[in-house]
Amino acid sequence: MNLEELVNERNYILGELKAYEDLQVAMEKIKRFNMENFTETTIKVYDTSNDPEMEEITESVVAVKIDELTDYLLRISENINRLKLGENTETS
C-alpha cells in the first residue's frame, strides 16, 4: 500500500473504532439503567448487517473488536511512519 492508501485505511479504522467505542458506552449506560430500574443486567444487541441471521453482540465481543481494531491501527500507523521516514531520507 502507498502512503495515501494507508492514510485512508487509518481514517476508516478510526471511524470504525469510534463506532465500537460509542456502542460500548451505550451498552454500559443501558445496563446501568436496567440495573437501577429493573434489576436486570442482561442486555441483548444484535448485528443485523448479515440479515436474516442476526448475530448477538455482547460486551465482550465489543471489547475484543476494539482491541483488534486498535492493534490494526497501530500496525497501519507504523507503516505510515516507515513510509514517511523513507521519504524524508530520500529527500535529504
Strand content: 5-15%
Low-confidence stretches are: none
Structural category: mainly alpha
Give the proportion of residues in helices.
over 70%
What gyration radius follows from the Cα positions, in whole Å?
19 Å
Strand order of the largest sheet: 1-2
Give the overall average pLDDT. Answer: 87
Number of strands: 2
Order of helices and strands: HEEH
Spatial shape: elongated
The first-to-last residue Cα distance is: 23 Å
Largest sheet: 2 strands, antiparallel
Annotation field: number of helices: 2
Quick description:
The protein has helices spanning 3-38, 59-91, and strands spanning 45-47, 55-57. The protein has 92 residues and is mainly alpha-helical.
Explain the overall architecture.
This protein is mainly alpha-helical and 92 residues long. Helix content is 75%, strand content 7%. It has two helices and two strands. The chain has a two-stranded antiparallel sheet with strand order 1-2. Strand 1 and strand 2 form a beta hairpin.
Descriptive keywords:
single chain, 92 residues, mainly alpha, two-stranded antiparallel sheet, 2 helices
List the helices and strands and how they pair.
Elements: H1 3-38, E1 45-47, E2 55-57, H2 59-91
Antiparallel strand pairs: 1-2
Helix pairs in contact: 1-2
